[in-house]
């Protein structure tokens, strides 16, 4: 991380701490049509992105552009209500800057949600998918450039990017709540257009079950910063190349909204089952040292 970016991180953390005393244990990124979970947060502080130095501004209609600090499932959280995408013209570093801020504030776990297209022939729109792994086809990486060893290693290991322990908690929670939870590989593409039938065949052939336009950059930076990651997708449209229908953005958003209650219940249940963070004060140490399937 450059000296300029490190200084920007300190300024952003300072701006948030001036407005909130919450020391978050968990960071949450809320994707397209997933506002229901935001309504369940016991909000202590709400900060517009424009009030945080270094934060980009979301250009996607369904992304509110607010940082929420409070409690959910008995845990102190910081939640992004609206994320950023490569197709909006932002760099990988800009897209992932909020994850750096959440880590510096003290969050040691990241829960990320998104809307995605389903390529698995046995899965249906509205199903939840536990992300087990990912493929990065964005053509870029947020760690390119000078590395700041205070924030993470030069060559972070990604062999278990999506924490096995958190995934097991999610599986048990879904079983107890009787929520159907698939599990598979997410592939990230740049968008903003949805894929052709030939592209879906290619993505399926390389091992992907669902496709979207986000998540992977944030997960890479979270792992770089030593965070545990849990990723959950909502399938909003069927992407079967031999039975492909024209994409309908209104239907995609409506499907995400219909699946909201299950996603909210699952995330809340996972949070309730997690032990309290043992990293009190970690954030202060880190800070001082340094349109379509929109998801």
Please characterize this protein's 3D structure.
With 295 residues, the chain is α/β, with parallel strands linked by helices. The protein has a single domain (3-275), classed as Nucleoside phosphorylase domain (Rossmann fold). Helix content is 35%, strand content 23%. The protein contains 8 helices and 9 strands. It has a 5-stranded mixed beta barrel. Strand 7 (181-188), helix 5 and strand 8 (210-212) form a beta-alpha-beta unit. The longest helix has 25 residues, at 249-273. The chain is globular and about 55 Å long. The model is unreliable at 279-292 (pLDDT under 50).
Q: Work out the count of structural domains.
A: 1
Separation, N- and C-terminal Cα atoms: 27 Å
Principal-axis shape equals globular
CATH homologous superfamily descriptor: Nucleoside phosphorylase domain
Indicate the CATH architecture.
3-Layer(aba) Sandwich
What's the CATH class, please? Alpha Beta
Short description:
The protein is an alpha/beta fold and 295 residues long. Helices cover 35% and strands 23% of the residues. The protein has eight helices and nine strands.
Characteristic terms for this protein:
295 residues; alpha/beta; Rossmann fold; five-stranded mixed beta barrel; 8 helices; 9 strands; globular
């Amino acid at each position: 991380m450059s000296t300029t970016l490190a200084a920007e991180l300190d300024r952003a953390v300072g701006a948030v701490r001036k407005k909130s005393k919450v020391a978050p244990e968990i960071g949450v990124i809320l994707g397209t049509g997933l506002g229901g979970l935001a309504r369940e947060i016991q909000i202590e502080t709400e900060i517009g992105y424009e009030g945080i130095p270094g934060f980009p501004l979301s250009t996607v209609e369904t992304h509110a552009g607010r940082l929420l600090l409070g409690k959910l499932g008995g845990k102190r959280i910081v939640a992004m209500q609206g994320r950023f995408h490569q197709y909006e013209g932002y760099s990988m570093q800009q897209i992932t800057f909020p994850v750096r801020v959440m880590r510096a504030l003290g969050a040691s776990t990241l829960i990320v949600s998104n809307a995605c297209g389903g390529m698995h022939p046995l899965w249906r729109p509205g199903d939840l998918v536990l992300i087990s792994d990912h493929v990065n086809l964005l053509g870029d990486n947020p760690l390119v450039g000078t590395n700041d060893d205070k924030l993470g290693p030069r060559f972070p290991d990604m062999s278990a990017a999506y924490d096995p322990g958190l995934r097991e908690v999610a599986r048990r929670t879904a079983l107890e709540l009787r929520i159907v939870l698939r599990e598979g590989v997410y592939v990230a593409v740049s968008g903003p257009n949805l894929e052709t039938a030939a592209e879906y065949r290619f993505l399926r052939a390389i091992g992907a079950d669902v496709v979207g336009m986000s998540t992977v950059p944030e997960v890479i930076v979270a792992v770089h910063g030593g965070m545990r990651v849990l990723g959950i997708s909502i399938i909003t449209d069927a992407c079967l190349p031999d039975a492909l229908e024209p994409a309908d953005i209104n239907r995609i958003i409506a499907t995400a909204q219909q699946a909201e209650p299950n996603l909210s219940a699952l995330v809340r249940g996972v949070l309730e089952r997690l032990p309290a963070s043992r990293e009190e004060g970690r954030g202060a140490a880190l800070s001082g040292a340094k349109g379509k399937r929109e998801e």
